[in-house]
Specification:
Oligomer: single chain
Radius of gyration: 21 Å
Structural class: alpha+beta
């Protein structure tokens, strides 16, 4: 019986909820037979740091701790490591927008209007940028007609630096296989 390393991300600011979701996902993907070498083998986690970091930085930290055989996560029967992650991008659904098309990428003046409305509604920060934008629904009613759009937002450096709550957690370590 050996051991394998794993890492698995789960959305959610609360580590207990994120751990439960990530473990349930691992159990779903790898079955309940045991010795999967995944998070499914873990019953608990230990928080490595409280400072949220980007997923790339969290992955690098996790790899370094595994490489150095950090005692907090080195026991294949012990807890998984947990690192809080702040997402560099986020997806938002924006309802009640004027004059939507149907399934169309938002661009030009339409995108400028949507961005202005999002800033007025405080949905976008001053240094956030919109990476992608699509109409998701069109009510087609009212004057003018309204609908919804899904935006992928790139957080600005100031917003990322100021963020203190995680968007999710990276769980990692050794597990029996």
């Amino acid at each position: 019986m050996g051991a394998m390393t794993f890492d698995q991300y789960a959305d959610g600011a609360d580590p207990q909820d994120a751990f439960r979701a990530a473990r349930d996902q691992a159990l779903h993907e790898h079955g309940h037979g045991g010795y999967s070498g995944t998070l499914a083998e873990k019953d608990d986690y230990v928080i490595i740091t409280r400072q949220p970091m980007t997923e790339a930085d969290a992955t690098a930290l996790a790899s370094g701790l595994i490489d150095r055989d950090d005692p907090r996560i080195s026991d294949k029967w012990g807890p998984a490591g947990a690192i809080p992650v702040k997402a560099e991008t986020r997806a938002i659904e924006v309802p009640q927008l004027p004059q939507p098309g149907r399934g169309v990428t938002l661009q030009g003046a339409d995108l400028d209007t949507v961005v202005r409305i999002c800033r007025e509604r405080n949905v976008l920060g001053a240094d956030d940028t919109v990476a992608t934008a699509r109409w998701t629904s069109s009510a087609g009613h009212g004057t003018p007609p309204t609908g919804s759009a899904r935006l992928t937002v790139q957080r600005g450096p100031a917003a990322l630096a100021a963020q203190t709550q995680p968007d999710g957690w990276l769980f990692f370590g050794w597990a029996s296989s």
